[in-house]
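This section describes the prediction task in plain terms. A model, or a person checking by hand, is given the sequence of a single protein chain and must write out its three-dimensional structure as a string of tokens. No templates, partner chains or ligands are provided. The sample shown here is typical of the held-out split.
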Amino acid sequence: MRETEQAIRNYLGSDINLAIQLDGGWGSGKTFFVKELVKDLNKDDFIHAIYFSLYGTTTLEEIKLGIVEKIISETLVGGKLITFYQKHKEKINGLNRIFGNSRLKPIGTILDLISEAYRDRSNELSDKKIVIFIDDLERRSKGIQLADLFGFISAELLENLHIKVVIISNAEKLEDEKYETIKEKTIERSINFSCEWETVKEVVKTGIDGLQILKDGDWLFEVIKIFLYGDGKINLRILQSVLSNYKFLEEKIMAQKIGKYESQESDICKSIFLNTLVITNEMKLGRLDSSKLKEISNLCDSRIFLTEEMAELNGLTEKREIKISKLASEIIKKYHYGEIFTDYIFYSDSINNYIIRGYFEESPSVYINKWLKYFDVIEYQTSNLLSQIAYQFDQMVEEELRNIQDKIIVEIHNARFPSLEELIKTYFQLAQFSKMGLMFSGIEEDWRKAFISTGTLAAVAQKEEIIPEFELNHFWQRYEDFVMRDDYNWIHMEYKKIEIEDRSIKEKEAIVSIFQKNTTQAQRTVLDNLSSQKVVNRIAEGGYIENFVMKVPSGARELWFYLRNANRFDNDPEDLQIIIDKIEKEKSKIIDKVALYGIKELLDYLKENQRQELLAKEGK
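The expected answer:
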């Protein structure tokens, strides 16, 4: 935004007698930037800066009067106001009478008085430039014609009063079909606005100053960058709502002392922030409201998160053993990747309810106790329980054995396992009791479902980092005399499903990293194993071109660099044609010359390689 500020300051120092336009999407931070700039400009002895919003105005006369009042109240300050009043007492009294009788009709008279006053004071204010920032152009009343408004700006403000004007807008939302023609007579140039990362950080620091979460500032800013600023743009209104909601929740919940678990305060704050970010963002984007809270209830009070696809993969939805809403699945797919998120997230019905409905119905101590229950601060019990029944089961009655097995199943549901090895060992030891006909746990009709129905196997495996081509042979060799072959085949099959799902996620993340200049060594390994041919196939089939190439700034050059440096570029011409078609279809919508340069470079490269591939096939 330094470039934007410099462009505006250059305009103020120029002889240009037209306005300039600051254009950007809703929530992009334009208003925040302008209001801060107005403060800075008014520290200058040579500039009077005025901010005026068209939002809420209903007539052109109301706009005129509002701007006049701003000029009077904000530029004629201190002793100059007294001097001005003494010199123009009679006219000011007349102006007051006009305000008293009718505030909306005699605008021409008012402007005449102001214009005359400025002409009288031309020597006094010769070194003082007036700039008016007129915001929310697209949010003016439909009764205010754009041609009339621009006519007023051009004739009265620019030409008559010689005031500089900066118009702030979201041109995409302007409905006037003649807008481009109309603006040519009033606007010298348009400046595209985007919010810089440093400004985002300042907004965050200001919004939650003094809160515990800022002690982990690197983590916090990384989360915001990934989930709210990932494409280099941000909706500051959504960010500020996230910060406001989080501030209330941290102050309410963390006021509760958590005794011996004080070392977990940072993790609890991270959990609250992630919960707040997801629900606030989805609400502000219009995908979540009070009527849909039940749809995400299965996300709450758990550390296991299943998508619809994962449930179907395990055959759970057909038997109606678990119901997962489409909305919950979409949230998991959108946010649940990478340790920065999955290590801390814990959804609470009470937090969701506060964000959507405005009241927090749970006591802070209840929230904290729930959080502690689902994280590793509670002692891992499974190993001791297994040892107990392994050596003493023949001394127990059926009810005693059932109770201990129930406790183990609860541990499995809560995914409280220090390693994948411990989880697999638990599975085989329970399989021994199953083979003997002594598996009595009533929590699950089929005890095996505890390992997959809530995603426990997936959660523990992914936390430890899935090992490709995972082998269970050493467990099988240890337990083959005590368990059935079907039990081994079942757990092996379930793990392979998780392995495939994990590989798919990692491949998607690796392909995205191509466009973002932040490919890690692990992602480079994934790309090498995937091959450039498969990468191109995935890019052709997915939304990568729309989401990363045909944007400003564009990721076209990053893709071009990757393809150019690939070991061998031998791709299906049909895949190349799909990508070429997508670029050609959207290219006319891009006006940024830097983005267009990269897009053309990529397009030329793809066409040439497609030509070579076709020639090679013909040669065969």
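For orientation: Residues 485-516 form the longest helix (32 residues).
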